[in-house]
Amino acid sequence: MAPPTSITFFNFMISTYLILSQISVTFMKGHALERSLAAESNYHTVHVSSILPSSACKPSAKGPSRKSSLKVVHRHGPCHQLNQESSNRETLTETLSEDETRVKSIQARHAFRADTDKIRGSKADLPAKSGIAIGTGNYVVSVGLGTPAKSYTLAFDTGSDLTWTQCEPCVRVCYKQQDPIYDPVKSSSYSNISCNAAQCSALSSTPGTRTGCSASNCLYGIQYGDQSFSIGFFAKERLTLTPTDVFDEFFFGCGQNNQGLFGKTSGLLGLGRDPLSTVSQTARKYGKYFSYCLPTKSGSNGHLTFGKGSVPNTVKFAPFSSSRSQLNSLYFLDIQSISVGGQLLSISASVFQTAGNVVDSGTVITRLPPAAYSALRSAFRQQMSQYKTAPATSTLDTCYDFSSQSTMKIPKISIFFSGNVKVDLGIEGTLFALSLSQVCLAFAGNSAATDVGIYGNTQQQTFEVVYDVAGGKLGFAPGGCS
Ligand SMILES: *[C@@H]1O[C@H](CO)[C@@H](O)[C@H](O)[C@H]1NC(C)=O
């Protein structure tokens, strides 16, 4: 799908604007033994049963014990009550194709931002041509909104900034969601933002958003790269993350026209770096510090936690890429090298530096520069040569048929980030199984060396991922959740 033109988007804004104004309503031994042990530790020995995602929700051993913590579940996993269709092949194939759309939009936006940088000053005249595609790889959390607070399931997204929810009276369109739709009339803490307010004009510099005005009320429009969008009133409201984490005057979008790939969620929780993101708006309390653990599909102890609170001391931090993060609300981290089965791939450092790399909670499969991916793929294929290959699927081109195997030895993959941070991926971060007869290497290559790389959520699963935005760094610790 090509990124939509700003004309189409502008038409949406105009028509929504018209409709809104008309009715004036406007997330062995000796050396040999040593060598053999070393060799063993370079492989995951896995049983077939652990390759396919479980269709049952694993109950969590410990409850959400941390402070300022929200429970995170996979939108297509059995632990998610909004999940009705089981995670079958079709859903997985769809996930991969929507993932590609998200990747293209991140890359387009990155390119657009780079352009913006060149013509600094005239930014307002440029079309906001691309946002981030929502895709299906997202994880969801529940937050409270309004007074009295009611609970809403939002997809959380480090790749976008504005938080919005579908909002009564749904002047144009609200898609079907699981929770009752948020109704400002039933909340004593809701208020509209006027067109004159500074926050209204600030909106237009938030990536992917537009502003408008109707009966002196500020309108927002946010469009994602997959043509999903939300348009409505820009408003403020009381946000309740946990009973002790309450924020008055939280700026958000009260969506009157919402269409696209949002599933049955009520909207989106933006965790980017822009001043309007949830991270910035809660900075006074949490110091722009948050962490999460994305569970595997059947895991039930994932979390999204705000503040420094109980971050494990095993976290290793890598600095944000110094040159890239300024004009962009995305989180850039430098990759330096990759090892497969204990062997460091020979990839020149400049390969990773050409376009940089973003860490994104919503992209499913990690995208590498073409030269890096081809080195990874050759090493992986070579070490997997004893297994029967299977056809490629969508973006994944290195697949195996394990249907006649009981245990497999899979080479371990480690990613080296700048700051001496080595991330050893587990099996869930290495393979993406469509079925036992089609289990693929969970990485893909970008088509051009100039496309930004993306460290996706398959590889982040089970790690404690810590964003110290004020400190300019991002950290990883294994074993954050299951
Ligand atoms: C917000 O603006 C809309 C449209 O003008 C209006 O219908 C609604 O009553 C306003 N809400 C409040 C609380 O002022």
From TrEMBL:
Query: Which parts of the chain span the membrane according to its record?
Result: 6-27
Entry keyword set: Aspartyl protease, Disulfide bond, Hydrolase, Membrane, Protease, Signal, Transmembrane, Transmembrane helix
* One GO BP annotation of this record: proteolysis
UniProt-recorded Gene Ontology molecular function terms: aspartic-type endopeptidase activity
State the Gene3D superfamilies in the record: Acid Proteases
CDD domains named in the record: cnd41_like
List of catalytic residues: 157, 360
Domain Peptidase A1: from-to ranges: 139-477
The family this protein is said to belong to:
Belongs to the peptidase A1 family.
In Swiss-Prot or TrEMBL terms, this protein is called: Aspartyl protease family protein At5g10770-like
